[in-house]
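Notes to self after the Tuesday call (sharing in case useful).
The group wants a holo model before anyone commits to mutagenesis around the pocket. I volunteered. Ligand is phosphoric acid mono(formamide)ester. Logging inputs and output together so the record is complete.
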Amino acid sequence: MRPRRLLDISWGEFDAMSVEQKAPYLVQSDGTPYHTLFAQQFDLALLERLTHLATEIRGIAKTRAGMGFLRELVCHKRAMLYFSQPSSRTFLSFLSACQILGVQTGEVRDTSTSSEFKGESREDSVRTFSSYFDMIIMRTPEKGLAEHTAWAMSNSERPIPIINAGSGQDQHPTQALLDVYTLVRSFEHLGGLRNRTVVFVGDLARGRTVRSLSRLLTNYPNIRQIFVAPAPLQIGEDVLDNLRNKGVTHYCSDDFQAVIPEADAIYMTRVQDEWDKQKGDSARIDIARFHFGLEQLKLLRPHAILMHPLPRREEISTAVDHDPRAMYWRQMRNGMWIRTALIAMTFGCDKRIHEYHRQNL
Ligand code: ASP
Ligand code: CP
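Result:
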């Protein structure tokens, strides 16, 4: 199932390509993902296939018999969860996804307990994992490492797929998948995910979830994007360039109160101060105007939803947690279903799931 052509090109050639040029090298012959590295790999047709599959899996998992069927599906495969950066939900939802499908797992969450501590390179570490596992799901602080690993793995004696579970400040493609799945589900009875306004708020300069989601949303018709942040945390030009190139309506603002009534979805984010050049830099930025509490809730339209990739700090008051428009807990659970769908698709099990769904539900 590996994409053959990645064997034919050097790392230098591959690295020099645009993300869009790289995308065809990462898919299997039927168009399903092999390596999942960037949001740009997903077009509307693939997103629709994936969200549909996630919904079927959710339905099947409601019964004991269905869970039994799912648990047999990929019980012949093993996945390595290699998380060299902190995580709660991405790690646990991937772990749960593997458990749902019967995939056996191993993990490294702290490189001081692996031979990286003895000076082994990341590349050698990953090559070691590939001797024992059939997939690597990896979170790293380094931009581009998942990509390099995917290239190296495609060219190794035992090629295996790589899933990027968050790479530096750059990308978090599977978070964007669960965010889109949440939006699709939230608007499915209101005409679908089209003709909507999504407002991104907070640390847009360093938040990788926003960078991936902004790109994924360009697949859906007429989704306007508004970026609300204090100037030092405003969204990067590369994301805006992408929207300009695709003709997507968007603008930047620092007036959160004024923007709230325009939103169909508000996507809050925390300050990513782990990336401060000097400790305490972020603390000097006034972000209180970009918090969401009961006052802001009054301005939110009745059908609109409030999202957050989590973890949160003060940017969403716990006082709004029980409002039906607060979607972040359901959003988090959607992550388990869409990641189950992605793993099932990567291992080529989607047809068997459709078949079971058609016959039993
Ligand atoms: N959990 C998300 C990430 O890893 C968002 C965050 O940490 O703020 O990017
Ligand atoms: N949203 C997200 O990636 O959460 P974790 O950092 O807890 O995995």
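Two things stood out.
The chain is about 40% helix and 15% strand.
The pocket of phosphoric acid mono(formamide)ester (ligand 2) is lined by residues 87-91, 166, 175, 309-311 (CB under 6 Å).
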